[in-house]
Amino acid sequence: MIIVVDAYNLLRAVPPYKKTITDKERVQFIAQLSAYGRRKSHKMVIVFDGGPHEWPFKENMKTVQVVYSGIHESADDYIKEYIDIHKAKDLMLVSSDSELNRYAARLNIPSIDSSTFHQLLMQELSTRQSSVAHQTHNQVVIMHDTSESIDAIMLEASKNVPIKSDDFVTNKDRAASSERVSKQERVLLKKLKKL
Q1: Directed axis angle between helix 23-40 and helix 114-136, to 10°?
Q2: Distance between the two ends of the chain, CA-based, in angstroms?
Q3: What does CATH list as the number for 2-118?
Q4: Which secondary-structure segment (H or E) carries 191?
Q5: Does a cis peptide bond (omega within 30 degrees of 0) precede residue 16?
Q6: How many other C-beta atoms lie within 10 A of the C-beta of residue 163?
Q7: Cβ atoms 43, 2 nearer than 8 A
Q8: In what order do the strands lie in the sheet containing 64-68?
Q9: Contacts 24+ apart (CB under 8 A), 76-81
Q10: pLDDT, tens digit, for every residue of 48-103?
Q11: DSSP state string for 101-143
Q12: pTM, entire model
């Protein structure tokens, strides 16, 4: 999937809500999105307002394309052009800008607000860091000495779990629930599962 990021919109949506972003913060932000893109196998298109050139300037890295819109065009304008040209591809927009989100919706491109995406981003990156840290500590801690295996204990405990009628979903229930979800919502849910 290609994730198109309204960069300053995302950067300003997370604490400590700053109006100006330093070069160091921008580089760190790009590195985080790049790591996320590699980890999830997504191409990230990160669009910033302005930049060092008059017209849009692109820097391509492995899974990331960083775009500076230039002085003649806003990031929003560039994003609208980009998603219009690439609307047939598997796209998702990250922005809290309601005008951009409406534009994407007209093209049947789902969008996610910046703060929600930032939570997913941080969760994924922290999961990766904790799994790497866990792999570096190859120690086994035994909490108690017992001859029974954990599997046997869990199997025995599962025999005492009551079964409720709500636990069973019938084909009629499935059909009714799928009719309640619009096509646009189903597309969004499918893309969110990829995040």
Answers
A1: 70
A2: 9
A3: 3.40.50.1010
A4: helix 183-194
A5: yes
A6: 7
A7: yes
A8: 57-60, 64-68, 43-48, 2-6, 91-94, 111-112
A9: 76/6, 76/100, 78/47, 79/4, 79/6, 79/47
A10: 998 878 888 899 987 899 999 988 899 999 999 999 999 999 999 999 999 999 99
A11: HHHHHHTT--EE-HHHHHHHHHHHHHHHHHHHHHHH-------
A12: 0.69
In sequence order, what are the residues at sequence separation of 6 or more whose Cβ sits closer than 8 angstroms to the Cβ of residue 191? 1, 90, 92, 110
Structure tokens at 145: 């000495």
Q: What is the largest CA-CA distance in the chain?
A: 73
Q: Are 94 and 111 in contact (CB under 8 A)?
A: yes
State the DSSP H helix or E strand holding residue 154, giving kind and residue range, or none if neither: helix 150-158
pLDDT band for position 134 (50/70/90)? Answer: very low
Domain range annotation of the chain? 2-118, 139-194
- Adjacent-strand bridge partners of 94: 5, 112
Nearest to 60 by CA among 83, 35, 43: 43
177: tokens are 């629930």
CA distance 118 to 195: 11
**Distance separating alpha carbons of residues 60 and 38, to the nearest angstrom:** 14
